[in-house]
Specification:
This protein is of the alpha+beta class. It has a domain at about 190-300: Chitinase A, domain 3, CATH 3.10.50.40. Helix content is about 55%, strand content about 15%. The protein has 11 helices and 9 strands. It has helices at about 20-35, 60-75, 85-110, 115-130, 135-145, 150-170, 180-190, 210-230, 235-240, 265-270, 305-335, and strands spanning about 50-55, 55-60, 190-195, 200-205, 250-255, 280, 285-290, 300, 340. The protein has a 4-stranded antiparallel sheet with strand order 5-4-7-6, sandwiched between helices. Residues about 1-45 have low confidence and may be disordered. GO terms for molecular function: peptidyl-prolyl cis-trans isomerase activity. Keywords: Isomerase, Rotamase, Signal.
Length: about 350
């Protein structure tokens, strides 16, 4: 009756279309979709029930609509002979997510928790502001991901509903102590460097040979650097926007000596004080800028004063604990729910 909580997550020679890898993928995808479509005169099978969650049903059309962006992405990334299995796994993940959404909506209804259109619109505006883009640019980005505005707003509404439900059900169980905050700071905001070293965070924005791409990369670099200067966290922005391998580490590239740096990099970094952001420089086919973490004195280097980050740390620890407690709560309601896959 119960399921584990899951959330759904992409120089040619001319040859016949369906002999190319992309053509084979599309052909396989087309064949898969046909298996979920009725023959003429059998329209009643289009929207068959695929799961029951308490007294509500989930239909095949809901799975197809929710999963369309994922299926499209998979069709361009997976080898043709693996496509059938990949689509099947994706459908299972999408169905898991729909079951979770349905359970959350049911629990929210019991508690009379609702989300208004104004709340969704305000949340969407905050997200655009945080990313420094207007509505048209944001919609264009959604389109490249295969998402409609309506689908995006519906997902956002579900996230807000879940957040309200989390706050109602588990907030009172969470206490973050000062010792936990200090331990996290010591582990994540301090580094030991050698005397004379420059401890750096980095962001980079690359382009190919096209001049328009170069101009666009410069615009992205300017926009993200302005977000850093406005006070947003360098590491979080690096993870989200940087094109460089260091993005996965929040832009952390460790310690450099002056002799390790290219001339343009050395010129930009050596005048900085700890905490400063460098100007944007051009290195190869990319624009980069840096944050100087160290003060060049050796010993322990602090990425930020404790007072300036303690509330952020407390919030991060709180959200992690909130997620943990919510997972426990979801497991409980799933154990109590009637869930049947058909």
């Amino acid at each position: 009756m119960t399921e584990k909580l899951s959330s759904p997550v992409p120089t040619l020679t001319r040859q016949p279309f369906f002999t190319t890898r992309f053509g084979l993928c599309l052909l396989s995808l087309f064949t898969l979709l046909l298996t979920f479509s009725p023959a003429p005169g059998q329209a009643e099978l289009v929207d068959r029930v695929v799961a029951v969650v308490n007294d509500e049903v989930i239909t095949l059309s809901e799975v197809n609509e929710e999963g369309q962006p994922f299926f499209k992405k998979i069709s361009t990334q997976v080898e043709a002979h693996e496509l059938s299995e990949a689509i099947a796994r994706a459908r299972e993940e999408v169905l898991n997510g729909l079951i979770d959404k349905r359970l959350i909506a049911q629990e929210a209804a019991k508690l009379r928790i609702t989300v208004t259109e104004q709340e969704v619109a305000a949340a969407a505006q905050r997200i655009r502001d945080q990313n420094g883009v207007d509505r048209d640019a944001f919609l264009a980005e959604l389109d490249t991901m295969g998402l409609s505005e309506a689908g995006y707003l519906d997902n956002l509404k579900n996230q807000i509903l879940q957040s309200k439900l989390i706050n109602y059900e588990v907030r009172s169980k969470i206490v973050i102590t000062d010792d936990q905050v200090l331990d996290y700071y010591d582990e994540n905001y301090t580094r030991r460097v050698n005397s004379g070293g420059y401890y750096l965070l980095q962001m980079g924005f690359s382009w190919n040979a096209d001049k328009d791409e170069r101009d666009e990369a410069r615009q992205r670099a300017d926009r993200v650097r302005n977000l850093v200067l406005a006070g947003q966290d360098f590491g979080e922005l690096a993870e989200k926007f940087s094109d460089l391998p260091s993005a996965k580490d929040g832009g952390d590239i460790g310690e450099f000596q002056e002799t390790d740096m290219a001339e343009a990099m050395r010129t930009a970094i050596t005048p900085l004080a700890a905490g400063d952001i460098s100007p944007i420089i051009e290195i190869g086919a990319g624009f980069q800028f840096f944050k100087l973490v160290s003060s060049r004195q050796g010993g322990i280097v602090y990425q930020a004063p404790f007072e300036s980050v303690q509330e952020k740390i407390r919030k991060d620890l709180y959200e992690k604990q909130l997620t943990k407690e919510f997972d426990i709560w979801v497991k409980k309601i799933k154990n109590e729910a009637y869930i049947k896959r058909l």
